[in-house]
Amino acid sequence: MKRIVRIFACAAAFLLLAGCASGEKKKAEAELYAMDTVMDLTIYATNAEEALSAAQEEIYRLDGLLSYTRSDSQVSAINRGAGGAVEVPVEVMDLVSTAVAISQRTDGAFDITVAPLVQAWGFYTGEYTVPDKEALDEILPLVGSGLIRLDPGAKTVELEKTGMSIDLGGIAKGYASDVLVEMMKDRGVSSALLALAGNISAVGTKPGGDLWRVAVRDPRDGSAYVGILSVSNLTVATSGGYERYFESGGKRYHHIIDPKTGVPADSDLTSVTVISQSGTTADALSTGLFVMGMDKALALWRASKDFEAVFVTQDDRVVVTEGIADRFEFTGQSGGYAYEIASR
Ligand code: AMP
Ligand code: MG
Hints:
Blueprint: E1 3-9, H1 12-18, E2 26-34, E3 37-45, H2 48-66, H3 74-80, E4 85-87, H4 90-105, H5 115-120, H6 133-139, E5 148-151, E6 156-159, H7 172-186, E7 191-196, E8 199-204, E9 212-218, E10 221-231, E11 234-240, E12 245-248, E13 251-254, E14 269-276, H8 279-292, H9 294-302, E15 308-313, E16 317-321, H10 322-325, E17 328-330, E18 338-342
Helix pairs in contact: 2-7, 7-8, 8-9
Magnesium ion binds next to β11 and α8.
């Protein structure tokens, strides 16, 4: 696994510019590949080096538990045992339980039992195919969080039907970010930016006390962005069809599948960014809201208190929910985007 670690003490210039108050805070930074993606961790603390290696170890541990593709993971054990109950660590059962709750909350738009569909489209192997209707009709009865049975006493997860499988890919990075944020708190770290691909947790502030700035990408142009969020102690999670897709017969097929139809979500959104104190919520909801589409996503936001969102629509609007609007700097004019604030 690729691992680059750079550690250096606050240089004099840095001290002046960023206000590295104690003069002892160090910066430790790592780029690593885990959970099928690239992660960037940046920590400013007196104990930055120790906090960074602990964070990296934790990511690898969680990848080992939660990976769909690794045969030795707990998720693979659950999937191999489909049709029966499989005992798992409480942590895994709790995350599955949270995923089921978010599935209910999103009316099935977010659903970890989507795995056989993701498999059918070839997203796990990269051997992409467009499954025909018959193939999808065979798989759809295996999809639905109502078919997951949890027994907290016995610590078991049961997928009711053989052939079922679960994929925590839409929630695991968010969960990992929550675990890492707790680790930072335990270590007294008050300045860190933990970017687990599209799940970015801002711990505290920048070393000088300024808010962390997290860009929201332009889904149509990988090198541009539609705006910048200024945040502290929040996770910013983005889901979009542009992140992973293939083309066949002149059509584009992306990796976020509508569990009801079995095909890539035909969304009026090109990306959804969810901002929440809970990384788990931000990650799962960004995936779920993308499937739901603008109207249902806004309705869910209006009925909720635990997240804000930035939507980028197919018709070139950037819609920001009012609770985060004053923290959002719109820069999408140059990309031809219009700006709107959604009110409660
Ligand atoms: P994210 O990048 O967080 O939006 O998650 C996308 C990943 O979650 C996909 O690559 C699949 O592994 C999985 N996934 C796809 N569709 C769904 C869905 N409707 N609900 C939950 N997970 C999904
Ligand atoms: Mg997600």
